[in-house]
């Protein structure tokens, strides 16, 4: 398979006054050309820090402390900052959750998209502007010539997110990292954006990492999914296998605990729950971080170094009871 | 099934317009029609879910019910008494029967107060229990929501989001209310914590015979918890029915699109979505006729000019659409 991205044993820590937070701890995965990988987990599980590490946007007190990030065979962690800057925004680009804060409020959106072109290619201002308008048309913004001259506050949340996507795609990247791209949007607008991302990635054979806390969004868009908990991948595999035949108790608990459409037919008074709360990364237990909340825990769960191991041909799980 | 005359809360023709001011003289140039002629009733012991997208008026409706926002016109009857006609003293007494749980458990608890003060505040305001009696009641409330009474002397920042929401629920329960308005009570919480809070709310409803007005944009959550559901769009109620009528067999084209847009956590169920064109219109200048007509896949000429009223369609179901049948 043609691997666009291979992440090996990535570790990112934050060195705070209260102690070291291992936000990403030994994360490995790979991404084929045209594939979409979903990264799913709750707040603090390390999904966003993983994305920021891939683009080397971690700032102090955080630091990538180990591992390899091979992008088309090139280790991004070995690059100088100017070399990295040439890749970031052109070959690898990002779409963030909050389109209002990610855009500059005092610049026309067309100008902001054109800036990305100017930063990476030898083009005139005019050519860059035309590319920006073209890119806005590609993400189905109506009347792009006019809208390019709008400021971010003129646009609705959904339109702003389209602008962010137009900006991310204007230099024709091979890898798009979308961090909660629809979380701030209404559900009917979310449907529009998910549809758009799906059609664009097929058009451009784009590889995508889609980060979300919403299992529904992941199930609709991704081919493969990695479930993260407390900085580690606890389960990874094709969406069909992971959603229909989850092996890790956390994945199982998560899938069972969410209310589903159609629940009013067989009315259940209570939902299944995962007891306890998301752990504090400063005080993680030894061994499996999920063990304190797990119904299947045994004394062996507190032994450290539980590996992510294959349980089926395509599915890997970090649990000694799986 | 309770009879309609057992309504705990009846809302008739509720309206709330917020003025939009411009210029140095702050002249009113237009109005945000946040809630525009909304009527529904909530029966004793049921959970009425109010669902819709941002700006549809669901939160304004919830606040207006408690008169936290003063409605412009309409009638709000709580156990038959018209809330909008009551003086401040009578309203104060009635307010003990209705409480609210907020969305953001970080913003709704005063960071400088201990849990004892926060949960005990309703007693202080209504001058009910004092001293150790109050402490005992607070301890009892904390146990009811699944917290240790020993947390009383601690401050909100020491708690996680889920625990804070439990504290907010304990405060809402203090005066043994009849009605609780829950405004997006789980939206700010992690997925695994949401189900804990939803279960707690369901348990408390049985234990205390509570009636809920549950406001949320999350359709699966609303479907799970509600007896009946009202769907709002740009200040109007467009469909009302039982949880199953709304979520399994919706009749209004907006409800249908809304439901089809909900991502389902099952990759095998990737389905045909009704993707609506365009954005949610602003309530400042809503479209004429049916407010949904510019985005509606089945709109006809009539929809552009004539506003559809909420009409009964089958038992329990009401729809505001000329074409629904």
3D structure, described in words:
The complex is a heterodimer of chains A (322) and B (325). Chain A has 322 residues and is an alpha/beta fold. Chain A has helices at 47-54, 81-87, 99-102, 109-120, 125-138, 144-147, 157-169, 187-204, 215-221, 239-244, 249-257; strands spanning 3-16, 19-32, 36-40, 62-71, 74-75, 92-95, 175-179, 207-212, 224-229, 232-238, 309-310, 316-317. In chain A, strands 6-7-8-3-9-10-12-11 form an eight-stranded mixed sheet, with helices on both faces. A four-stranded antiparallel sheet of chain A has the order 2-1-4-5. In chain A, helix 4 packs parallel to helix 7 and helix 7 packs parallel to helix 8. The radius of gyration of chain A is 21 Å and the shape is globular. The two termini of chain A are 28 Å apart. In chain B, strands 6-7-8-3-9-10-12-11 form an eight-stranded mixed sheet, sandwiched between helices. In chain B, strands 2-1-4-5 form a four-stranded antiparallel sheet. Chain B is built from ten helices and twelve strands. Chain B has helices spanning 58-65, 88-95, 115-125, 131-144, 161-173, 191-208, 219-225, 243-248, 253-261, 301-305, and strands at 7-22, 27-43, 47-51, 73-78, 81-82, 98-101, 179-183, 211-216, 228-233, 236-242, 311-314, 317-319. The interface between A and B is large, with 48 and 47 residues.
């Amino acid at each position: 398979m043609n691997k666009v991205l291979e992440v090996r044993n990535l570790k990112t820590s934050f060195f705070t006054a209260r102690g070291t937070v291992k936000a990403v701890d030994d994360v490995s995965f790979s991404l084929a050309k045209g594939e979409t990988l979903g990264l799913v987990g709750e707040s603090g599980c390390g999904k966003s820090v993983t994305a920021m590490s891939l683009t080397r946007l971690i700032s102090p007190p955080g630091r990538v402390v180990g591992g390899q990030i091979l992008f088309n065979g090139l280790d991004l962690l070995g690059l100088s900052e100017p070399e990295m800057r040439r890749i970031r925004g052109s070959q690898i680009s990002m779409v963030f959750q909050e389109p209002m804060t990610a855009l500059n409020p005092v610049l026309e959106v067309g100008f902001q998209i054109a800036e990305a072109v100017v930063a990476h290619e030898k083009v005139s201002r005019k050519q860059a502007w035309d590319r920006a308008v073209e890119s806005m048309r590609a993400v189905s913004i109506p009347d792009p010539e006019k809208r390019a001259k709008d400021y971010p506050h003129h646009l609705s949340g959904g339109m702003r997110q389209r602008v962010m996507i137009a900006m991310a795609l204007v230099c024709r990247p091979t890898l798009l990292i979308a961090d909660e791209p629809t979380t701030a949007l209404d559900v009917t607008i979310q449907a529009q954006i998910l549809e758009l991302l799906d059609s664009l990635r097929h058009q451009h054979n784009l590889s995508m990492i889609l980060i979300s806390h919403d299992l529904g969004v992941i199930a609709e868009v991704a081919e493969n999914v990695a479930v993260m908990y407390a900085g580690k991948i606890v389960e990874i595999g094709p969406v069909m296998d992971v959603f229909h035949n989850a092996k890790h108790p956390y994945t199982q608990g998560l899938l069972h605990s969410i209310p589903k459409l159609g629940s009013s037919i067989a009315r259940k008074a209570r939902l299944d729950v995962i007891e306890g709360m998301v752990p504090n990364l400063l005080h993680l237990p030894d061994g499996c971080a999920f063990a304190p909340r797990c119904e299947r825990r045994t004394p062996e769960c507190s032994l450290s170094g539980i590996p992510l191991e294959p349980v089926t041909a395509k599915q890997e799980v970090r649990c000694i009871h799986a | 099934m309770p009879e309609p005359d057992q309504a705990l809360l009846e809302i008739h023709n509720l309206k709330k317009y917020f003025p939009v001011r411009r210029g140095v003289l702050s002249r009113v140039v237009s109005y945000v029609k946040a809630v525009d002629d909304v009527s529904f009733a909530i029966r004793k012991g049921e959970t009425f879910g109010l669902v819709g997208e941002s700006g549809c008026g669901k939160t304004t409706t919830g606040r207006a019910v408690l008169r936290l926002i003063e409605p412009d016109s309409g009638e709000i009857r709580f156990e038959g008494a018209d809330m909008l006609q009551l003086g401040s003293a009578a309203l104060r007494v009635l307010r003990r029967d209705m409480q609210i749980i907020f969305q953001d458990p970080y913003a709704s608890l005063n960071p400088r107060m201990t849990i004892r003060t926060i949960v005990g505040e309703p007693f202080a305001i209504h001058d009910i229990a004092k001293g150790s009696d109050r402490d005992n009641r607070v301890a009892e409330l904390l146990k009811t929501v699944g917290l240790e009474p020993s947390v009383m002397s601690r401050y909100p920042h020491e708690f996680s989001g889920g625990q804070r929401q439990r504290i907010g629920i304990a405060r809402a329960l203090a005066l043994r209310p009849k009605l609780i308005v829950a405004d997006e009570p789980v939206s700010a919480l992690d997925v695994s914590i949401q189900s804990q809070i939803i279960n707690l709310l369901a348990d408390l409803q049985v234990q205390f015979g509570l009636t809920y007005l549950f406001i949320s944009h999350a359709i699966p959550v609303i479907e799970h918890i509600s007896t009946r559901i009202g769907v709002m769009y740009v200040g109007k109620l467009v469909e009302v029915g039982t949880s199953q009528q709304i979520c399994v067999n919706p009749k209004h084209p907006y409800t249908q699109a809304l439901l089809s847009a909900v991502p389902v956590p099952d990759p095998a169920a990737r389905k045909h979505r009704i993707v609506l064109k365009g954005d949610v219109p602003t309530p400042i200048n809503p479209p004429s006729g049916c407010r949904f007509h510019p985005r509606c896949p089945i709109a006809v000429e009539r929809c552009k000019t004539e506003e559809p009223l909420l009409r009964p369609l089958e038992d329990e179901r009401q729809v505001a659409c000329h074409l629904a049948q």
